[in-house]
């Protein structure tokens, strides 16, 4: 079955620096890749997603890239701010739209140092 | 290693019946999250518990209720089931409320079919 691996499990960056989180997926049929942010005790929030017909997508300080050949996708956060501190997880799906089944990565705990 | 255990894996109920889903977190995990995922839908956060207290609430219908017990397992109770409740329900567990070590481990889900 589909497997999504996410690295690193923890990441600490200086405020203002960039953060990169990487994921790989195993099922080449996956065609939808959402990223979620979860803050302390709160629900995961979708922050950005990308579909397999797009190689890169950007939304303000957040960008996601997808390499279908290598089955890699990455989240890039630039100009990090303290409020970016949270757990981020990637996911992959073969769903036609958002998902019929989502496989999540194991999560990355991002800490922003002041 | 032990994972998050959900039971049952599959459940078929008729409209207006009740259902109870169970979630057993990884040992020493004290936080449980419930999600509902309908066909072709993003997973929708329902509710979470930390140390047996509700910590966050999402799009959980009034017909649903949940609780976390002293052994940290959680149960999602669903009453007056509707066809639209047919979905995959999964829970996740973590140590603390998520911003600590380990991230999240999700269970394999309970597929509820309401007929």
SSE layout and pairing:
The complex is a heterodimer of chains A (114) and B (115).
Chain A: E1 4-7, E2 10-14, E3 19-25, E4 32-38, E5 44-51, E6 56-59, E7 62-67, E8 72-77, E9 86-93, E10 102-104, E11 108-113
Parallel strand pairs in A: 2-11
Antiparallel strand pairs in A: 1-3, 3-8, 4-5, 4-9, 6-7, 7-8, 9-10, 9-11
Chain B: E1 5-7, E2 10-13, E3 19-24, E4 31-37, E5 44-50, E6 53-57, E7 64-68, E8 74-78, E9 87-94, E10 105-106, E11 110-114
Parallel strand pairs in B: 2-11
Antiparallel strand pairs in B: 1-3, 3-8, 4-5, 4-9, 5-6, 7-8, 9-10, 9-11
Commentary on this structure:
The complex is a heterodimer of chains A (114) and B (115). The relative contact order of chain A is 0.34. The N and C termini of chain A lie far apart (41 Å). Chain A has strands at residues 4-7, 10-14, 19-25, 32-38, 44-51, 56-59, 62-67, 72-77, 86-93, 102-104, 108-113. Chain A is mainly β and 114 residues long. In chain A, strands 2, 4, 5, 9, 10 and 11 form a six-stranded mixed beta sheet that branches. Chain B is globular. The termini of chain B are far apart. Chain B has strands at 5-7, 10-13, 19-24, 31-37, 44-50, 53-57, 64-68, 74-78, 87-94, 105-106, 110-114. Chain B has 115 residues and is mostly beta strands.
């Amino acid at each position: 079955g589909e497997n999504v691996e996410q690295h690193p499990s923890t990441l600490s960056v200086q405020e203002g620096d960039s953060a990169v989180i990487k994921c790989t997926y195993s099922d080449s049929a996956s065609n939808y890749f959402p990223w979620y942010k979860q803050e302390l005790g709160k629900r995961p929030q979708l922050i950005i997603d990308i579909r397999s017909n797009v190689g890169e997508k950007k939304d303000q300080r957040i960008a996601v890239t997808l390499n279908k050949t290598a089955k890699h996708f990455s989240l890039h956060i630039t100009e990090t701010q303290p409020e970016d501190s949270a757990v981020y997880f990637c996911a992959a799906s073969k769903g036609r739209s958002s998902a019929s089944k989502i496989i999540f990565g194991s999560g990355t705990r991002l800490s922003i140092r002041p | 290693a032990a994972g998050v255990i959900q039971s049952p894996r599959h459940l078929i109920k008729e409209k207006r019946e009740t259902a109870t889903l169970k979630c057993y977190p990884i040992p020493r995990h004290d936080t449980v999250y419930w999600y509902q995922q309908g066909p072709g839908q993003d997973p929708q956060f329902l509710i979470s518990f930390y140390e047996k207290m509700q910590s966050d609430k999402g799009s959980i219908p009034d017909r649903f209720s949940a609780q976390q017990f002293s052994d940290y397992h959680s149960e999602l109770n669903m009453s007056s089931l509707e066809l639209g409740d047919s979905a995959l329900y999964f829970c996740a567990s973590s140590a603390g409320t998520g911003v600590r070590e380990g991230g999240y481990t999700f269970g394999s889900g309970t597929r509820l079919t309401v007929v």
